[in-house]
Specification:
Elements lengths: L4 H26 L11 H13 L10 H26 L10 H31 L9 H26 L3 H10 L1 H7 L7 H22 L7 H10 L30 H9 L5 H5 L1 H4 L6 H20 L19 H4 L7 H5 L6 H15 L7 H11 L29 E4 L1 H6 L1 H16 L4 E2 L10 H6 L2 H18 L3 E4 L2 H8 L10 E4 H10 L15 E3 L13 H11 L4 E2 L27 H10 L5 E4 L2 H13 L6 E4 H9 L2
Parallel strand pairs: 1-2, 1-3, 3-4, 5-6, 5-7, 7-8
Helix pairs in contact: 1-8, 1-10, 2-9, 3-4, 4-5, 5-7, 5-8, 6-7, 9-10, 10-13, 19-27, 23-24, 24-27, 25-26
């Protein structure tokens, strides 16, 4: 039973040509992207690739991921038999049967069992797509076509092997049943007279499915089979909690308005997207009915690149705009402004696509090149530029929160820590109470600390996430100058946005600070015995804790605020259904604090209702933005009996009796 190489060989050559052309076309478009160094720390990158691409760590984080794990590893293992199939079709003398029996027979068993597992996994995937797809648009002809091709390959493989076994001499049947149990079962269904026909039909069905899959692969979303593994290798090794710096010199372009202005890694991301929908299922904007869908954003970038590729290579104007209402392949402005930069999409993505930074890059273009942004941001930008705070309050008012206290200015010769109060802690009437509580706790613990007073300036977090990099750049440089002149080395912050910006973004400006969030600092003070508690804050009742996106997902600080609450109340806080790295955003990040929500349900209301499901007396937070969003949300749902407290306030009630 041998195939005819005369027919198969030209078909294989044509298929390989189509496959190579498709791969070249797409990878050449990726090369249009801007330079970015993702070739550092090769050893670590290989380890990350093995863990996440081959080990499928993030895929397995969801129950259905096991099914994909089976399909993925079936594909990897069956590369051996499929490669043999192709070579055998051209050179019939090539066969795995030439291997030593100690290798050949176990390999047959593995291939037989894996083929069955793959077939079962494909059927499950088909049923899921019909009954409960990951998202409505996932029920596509393309998806079923690819799954059908894989199923055809598996069934044809059993047909080929079954036909061969049916013609084996009796003395070999016991060996076949041992090492090819599934194929032997199929062989029992084949009559001797039908063996040749079954083999021929099965062989050519296998060939047709394999060659068709090869031709179709580079032109479909299943290109991720080739790009997901390198995408995991080239992943950002550090947390994606900052954006690249721009240089404001004549001739530079700012932000991204067409696909080739993204980096090559951004474009590889678009090719690596599996369209699994995990990002959109955790996106707070998408969940609450906003037009933003991170999966669709990445898809539109890919479509835009494919449609405009030839023009971009020639340096011509793209036919389809990247930003606008051009349909598929364009990202609407309303979508771009809907992002809270919470990072949930990046945390969920199995192949480490960076959706949020791409949105910020498009925001930069709109703000810096087009001056197009939501109207409510005009006052924010003017206030930031003129008075270095979102409200436009005079800098002299920054110390009013501590008017009734004796707070010393920071002195590099006598002060160890700078308390960076932040704009909310200085000006927001509710957050001022947190500043006072924190200051009192620092004093009681004997910490050497001081403030910059009226010389303190906004860190610029909202500006950078909203795309106003020009003003952020000026603000960051001024802050770096002040910190350097004052000799600041250690900083305590109460705002996670200040914490993340000073710790991560300012490194781009050469400023290396030891930045610690107040939840970590207070936890350490109590645990080290510097801060004695006078009792517990039992009067707070049942407490539930909400994770700040910029403290948790962006900086991996999860335990400290919980430990502070437990130390202060004598009991661990109740967890919401979505917590830690899966926590739901309050809706204020990414500059959304200063914007209204005009579509769908307000994000903070969704989170407030989730918190109220746990029937708390107190909702604990560790961020002034979260504090504001929860208090506003509780008022809207008329839950007046539930209080919102920052962890510093909770600890102060136990330590300052």
């Amino acid at each position: 039973m041998t195939p005819n190489p005369t027919i198969f060989t030209p078909l294989l050559i044509i298929s390989l040509g189509i496959f190579a052309w498709g791969c070249w076309r797409r990878f050449s478009l990726v090369a249009l992207g801007q330079a970015e160094n993702r070739f550092d720390n090769i050893g670590q990158r290989i380890g990350e690739m093995l863990k996440y691409a081959f080990g499928q760590k993030r895929v397995l984080a969801k129950p259905f991921g096991l099914n994909h794990f089976v399909i993925f590893w079936s594909f990897i293992i069956l590369l051996v038999s499929n490669t043999e199939f192709l070579l055998h079709g051209v050179f019939p003398s090539i066969s795995l049967a030439h291997l030593p029996d100690g290798i050949y027979f176990p390999l047959l068993l593995v291939i037989d069992i894996v083929s069955l597992l793959a077939l079962v996994a494909v059927v499950i995937a088909m049923v899921r797509r019909i009954i409960a797809p990951p998202y409505p648009e996932a029920r596509t002809i393309e998806a079923f076509f690819i799954l059908a091709l894989i199923a055809t390959l598996m069934m044809a493989n059993f047909g080929i092997n079954g036909a061969r076994i049916s013609h084996m001499p009796v003395i070999y049947l016991a060996v076949a049943r041992t090492y090819m149990p599934v194929s032997s079962f199929v062989a029992g269904l084949i009559t001797p007279s039908a063996g040749a026909l079954v083999f021929g039909v099965s062989w050519w069905a296998h060939a047709a499915a394999l060659l068709l899959f090869m031709c179709y692969l580079p032109h479909s979303k299943h290109m991720h089979i080739l790009t997901a593994i390198p995408n995991c290798f080239f992943r950002r090794l550090e947390k994606p909690n900052t954006q690249p710096r721009e240089e404001f010199v004549s001739g530079n372009t700012f932000g991204v308005a067409q696909a080739d202005r993204f980096t090559w890694k951004d474009l590889l991301d678009s090719m690596a997207c599996t369209e699994c929908g995990r990002c959109q299922k955790v996106c707070p904007a998408n969940i609450t009915g906003k037009p933003l869908n991170p999966r669709a954003v990445v898809h539109d970038i890919k479509v835009n690149l494919l449609e405009n590729g030839a023009l971009l290579k020639q340096g011509a104007t793209p036919a389809i705009p990247l930003i606008g209402d051009g349909g598929e392949g364009s990202v609407a402005e309303e979508v771009i402004w809907g992002c809270t930069t919470c990072g949930a999409c990046m945390e969920a993505c199995p192949v480490f696509i960076e959706q949020m930074p791409k949105i910020v890059k498009m925001r930069r273009h709109l703000v810096e090149n087009e001056a197009r942004f939501p109207e409510e941001l005009l006052n924010l930008f003017e206030n930031m530029e003129g008075r270095s705070n979102p409200w436009g309050i005079a800098p002299s008012e920054r110390t009013k929160w501590c008017a009734q206290m004796e707070v010393k200015p920071f002195d590099k010769n006598t002060t160890e820590y700078l308390l960076y109060v932040g704009c909310a802690g200085s000006f927001d009437s509710r957050s001022k109470h947190v500043s006072v509580a924190l200051a009192q706790l620092l004093d009681k613990a004997g910490v050497s600390w001081g403030i910059l007073g009226k010389d303190e300036k906004c860190c610029g977090d909202s500006l950078r996430r909203l795309g106003n990099e020009y003003v952020f750049d000026r603000m960051a440089k001024e802050n770096v100058r002040i910190f350097t002149e004052r000799g600041v080395k250690k900083v305590i912050t109460q705002c996670p946005h200040c914490f993340s910006t000073l710790k991560n973004d300012y490194k781009q400006y050469g400023l290396e600070l030891e930045v610690i969030h107040h939840s970590e600092f207070l936890r350490n003070l109590v645990q080290d015995g510097h801060l004695k508690l006078e009792g517990t804050s039992a009067e707070l009742g049942a407490t539930v804790f909400h994770d700040s996106c910029y403290l948790g997902r962006h900086n991996d600080v999860y335990d400290a605020p919980r430990e502070v609450i437990e130390l202060a109340t004598g009991a661990a806080p109740v967890e919401m259904e979505r917590n830690r790295n899966n926590a739901f955003c309050c809706g204020a990040g990414g500059g959304r604090m200063w914007m209204e929500e005009h579509t769908g349900e307000r994000i903070n209301l969704t989170r407030v209702r989730e918190a109220l499901e746990e029937k708390p007396d107190t909702i604990c937070v560790s961020c002034p933005y979260c504090l504001t969003m929860f208090e506003d949300g509780l008022k809207d749902v008329k839950a007046d009996s539930v209080k919102v407290r920052d962890v510093a306030e909770v600890l102060a009630e136990a330590a300052l009796r």
